[in-house]
Amino acid sequence: MRLSNVLEELKRSNLSFKNELNSEKFYESLHRLSDFRGYFKDCISLDELPYGTRIKIICAKVLKYLETINKKSYNQDDPYDVCLLLNYWVYSRLFDILQYKGEHYVHIAYGKLQSKWTDFLDDKSYHKLCKPITNMVNHNDWRKRKELYEYYVDYSPMKKIVDQYKQRCNEFYIYVENKAPLYKHFEELCPDPNPNKCPEFYNDCIKYNPEKVLSTFKCQQDIMNKRKADERSVAQRGNIHSGREPISEDSSVNMLTVGASQNLSGKSQTADNVGNILLGVVATSMTSGALYRFTPIGNMLRNIFGWSNNMRNMHGGDNGLFDYAPESFNLYSGGAVEHYIGYHQA
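The line above is the sequence of VIR protein; the predicted structure tokens follow.
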């Protein structure tokens, strides 16, 4: 996984309004599902897969959700498709668990889980309930699709809140602004009607393109004024430095670091500088080992830099304590139950 994915994870987890997003509320409800062990019998063959215990838990949670929540709340007129979020949750959870074995294992596990899911719906005659999306494995940009649909689900209710509480406008403005590269990605693909290239839901998302909506934010002018002031301040500092004696290479590096940190309130705040500073915090925090072992950020960093999880291999097999990887974009929920169930005695 690329470093950019780590930074996206960090930025999203740092949002003050993260728990108010509809997509996050949905994922949290799946994490908090309990009393799902009765569905293990429908998922028992998944035990044969690598990390099969954890995959069986995902399967059982899906079946529990379908029978106890989706069955009661299904409505064709809902403003967004919960089924699509459910499929993205399943696929991202499998990817978190199996990505270090190889994406091929993710595809195998997803296919086997789909079979259990479909059989359950057929046996119960739940023909109108959420079905698995069989072609998701064909989407190499599934993370971007997931992010785009989450943004579509989350935008409208959050914009209504921001319009009422102006003090929250700046942060949401930056959040929306950061979706511009996502739209650029799909604008290049979506003249093609092939759903493997352009998501079927893309047309619904066009109205929330940052280029269309940022001008409706009441705080936009204040943000633009602040950025211009910061740019002038940076230019003035540059003029002062240009009139001084040449400085050493080491001093240049130090000055660049200071300048970057001082410029966070300006335009650079929207992307890389914030990510770089957060990544520095992560690197420092990892000395304690907690972030490295127990969060998806730690997992992603291990994947980028080739760090191995020695704790996982201490006794061999599937150790539910040290291998657990929470669902992307939700760093702190759902762990206790899966740690307990996923543990294998040495």
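Note on the example: The mean pLDDT is 76. The first helix runs from residue 3 to 13.
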